């Protein structure tokens, strides 16, 4: 190996050592940044999955995004989501607020008639993280025992899930 080659290899090793030392020194900060980026990415993916399922009318898939403790009390409603737009996400630890704009049509239980044109609404959803998974926690389900009628769309017939 030539002297230029040796200098190059030594330079690479020194820079790599400095990088490892620097990484070790800022490990906590790096892990915090990675955790917050992963949390934001995973939450956004879960929110999109939830609303995609609601737009598709897939009640079982939509229910899979509801917090396990709240799921047994979540029942359907008489709306059909036609579109959504995630407007903002604010994460504070293991809890997040997701602001969503939706378009929906109301249905009358027992009839196939829907409102036209679609109505628009803005929602502030609460999502909670359990381990690495985010779940929607309908506000009405926190600490209560009563069923919540807006947790899952029922399609056009108003049946409960």
Blueprint of the fold:
Elements: H1 3-25, H2 27-56, H3 59-63, H4 68-71, E1 74-77, E2 79-92, E3 95-106, E4 119-130, E5 133-136, E6 148-153
Parallel strand pairs: 1-6
Antiparallel strand pairs: 2-3, 3-4, 4-5
**Shape estimate:** elongated
Radius of gyration from the alpha-carbon trace, in angstroms: 24 Å
CATH architecture: Roll
Output the CATH topology: Nuclear Transport Factor 2, Chain: A
CATH class: Alpha Beta
Strand order of the biggest β-sheet: 2-3-4-5
- Give the structural class: alpha+beta
Order of helices and strands: HHHHEEEEEE
C-alpha end-to-end distance? 73 Å
Query: What count of helical segments does DSSP give?
Result: 4
Low-confidence stretches: 141-161
The largest sheet is: 4 strands, antiparallel
The total beta strand count reads 6
Helix content range: 25-40%
How many domain regions? 1
**Global mean pLDDT:** 73
Structure characterization notes:
With 161 residues, the protein is an alpha+beta fold. The chain has a single domain, classed as Nuclear Transport Factor 2, Chain: A, CATH 3.10.450.50. The chain has helices at 3-25, 27-56, 59-63, 68-71; strands spanning 74-77, 79-92, 95-106, 119-130, 133-136, 148-153. The strands form 2 sheets. It has a 4-stranded antiparallel beta sheet, with helices on one face. Strands 1-6 form a two-stranded parallel ribbon. The relative contact order is 0.18.
């Amino acid at each position: 190996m030539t002297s230029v080659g040796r200098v190059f290899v030594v330079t690479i090793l020194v820079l790599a050592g400095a990088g490892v030392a620097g990484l070790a020194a800022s490990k906590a900060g790096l892990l915090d940044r990675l955790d917050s980026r992963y949390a934001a990415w995973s939450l956004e993916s879960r929110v999109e999955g939830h609303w995609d399922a609601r737009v598709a009318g897939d009640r079982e898939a939509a229910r899979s995004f509801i917090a396990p403790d709240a799921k047994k009390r979540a029942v359907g409603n008489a709306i059909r989501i036609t579109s959504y737009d995630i407007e903002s996400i604010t994460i504070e630890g293991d809890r997040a607020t997701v602001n969503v704009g939706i378009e929906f049509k109301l249905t009358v239980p027992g009839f196939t008639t829907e409102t036209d044109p679609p109505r628009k609404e803005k929602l502030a959803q609460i999502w909670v993280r359990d381990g690495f998974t985010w779940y929607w926690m309908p506000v009405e389900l926190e600490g209560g025992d009563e069923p919540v009628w807006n947790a899952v769309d029922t399609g056009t017939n108003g049946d409960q899930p």
